[in-house]
Amino acid sequence: MPEHTVDLLKVEHLAVHYGDLVGVADVSIEVQPGSIVALLGSNGAGKTTTLNAIAGLVPASKGSIEWRGENIARQPAYAIVRKGLALSPEGWRLFTGQTVEQNLRLGTTPLADRKRAPEMLERVYALFPRLMERLRQRAGTLSGGERQMLALGRALMGEPRILMLDEPSLGLAPSIIETLYETLGRLHDQGLTLLIAEQSIQLALEVADYAYVLQTGRTVLDGTAESLAADPQVRRIYLGLETGEATG
Amino acid sequence: MILLQVIVAGLLIGAVYALFSSGLTLVWGMMNVINFAHGEFVMLGMYVAFWAFTLAHFGVASFSAAAAVVLFMLGVLVYLALIRHVMRGPMLAQILSTFGLLLVLRYAAFWAFGANFVSLPDGILGPSLNVGGILLSAPKLVAGVVALAVTIGMHLLLTRTMLGSRILAVAEDRNAAMLMGIRPDRMQAIAWGLSGASAGIAGALIATFFPISATVGESLGLIAFVVVTFGGFGSVPGAMIAGLIIGLIESLSAYYVGPVYQDVFVYALFVLVLWIRPRGLMGKA
Prior knowledge:
The complex is a heterodimer.
Chain A: E1 9-18, E2 21-31, E3 36-40, H1 47-55, E4 62-67, E5 70-71, H2 77-82, E6 85-88, H3 100-106, H4 117-127, H5 129-133, H6 144-156, E7 162-166, H7 174-189, E8 193-197, H8 201-207, E9 210-215, E10 218-224, H9 225-230, H10 232-237
Parallel strand pairs in A: 3-8, 3-9, 6-7, 7-8
Antiparallel strand pairs in A: 1-2, 1-4, 4-5, 9-10
Chain B: H1 2-31, H2 38-56, H3 60-86, H4 91-113, E1 129-131, E2 134-136, H5 138-160, H6 162-172, H7 174-179, H8 184-207, H9 216-231, H10 236-256, H11 262-276
Antiparallel strand pairs in B: 1-2
Helix pairs in contact in B: 1-5, 1-8, 1-9, 1-10, 2-3, 2-4, 2-8, 2-9, 3-8, 5-6, 5-8, 6-8, 9-10, 10-11
């Protein structure tokens, strides 16, 4: 396969500025097709800004974002999602005044072939039977777990190649987080590529193939999930985790 | 029987208020932009009806449709040429720009159509009707019923169609809508078009029983603001109920106290509602 048709996402030396404020200073990441990549780092490290820049919600001030060989750094969000890059934003951002069904149907907008909408709906109902019972309910009346299902389902309706998730476990009960990651694992088995920003580092390293660590707007470290998880130095310095041997 | 007649007449005119106010509430709720020129949109709808009748002998249905189309296009044009740009500016720029638009439209109408009142011929919709002992003017009956139907249609468009769902998505969360592949500028242009169309149809309906002049938008625009504030910003059902209530109060106070004082009662109620419930009848908290 020639390189430009490969579902490769490559972010190089990305910088984003909000006026005088620096959102991210220098971020480089690569997402291989079929992989699960985790974006790690503390609050304010630049995870959300990085995902928002890839999705086209904030403009990159420097660097490039390459998707299938095309630089998409200057394109608006509504164009990028049509190219197969979907973002489920932090806090889910559901259309709370509209019904569950309307939220899901809005998700079908990026489909090139509108006739496939019913098929996509069926697929999401199969994944989350719970949503089917809530179709006529307003999204604002759902529980936290149901909201997360709807956000994920809505993002899947457009049949993305890469699904980006910003803090998907935030504010959820542990049992629901477990179900969420099981679902993500199943989607990955079906061929979906995932890029997940996650504060819960242990969780992220369990499911990811590869991970990047962000610190004050820069990628400071990367490696396979196993290598990062195993490195005691990494655990202590970057991930804030105490290892068994650490004496402090 | 007279009282019933007064009530029905009030509700009919209230339905027309509801129609053009629903257009104002749509763009207000969606973009937080106050269109001070909305009353002038209604005025232009009246002139479109008048000229379509005078020059092309359009009937009521055709000139109402013509007013809807022309004002839809004007709404889109205003969004693209003006609103889209000032929305990036401070709130004051938005207020001044639509206020400027009001002046431009009003005095352009003076310039183009003159200061004289014109009107469609009496009885364009037939004589007054006697419905079960209630005497109703045919134009007002038609205007009220059509206005109510179009307002309900607008509400259904917003809540039951994919287009409406996309418009409301942009209204609620612009960025989240973009992540769905929706183009906010396109939805906002359509919303301005719909807002214009509602004013256009309402203007055409009003023209069947009310004299047309370049300044008629002044009082109609004011009514639209009262209805929208009363009903709750952004709520079409709120505008509908508020429009009907205000039509009713106008009619009752004109009958019991005198037409000269009807506005006093309308605004007194308006202030009272704002005092007790500042977000309006059906506005979001």
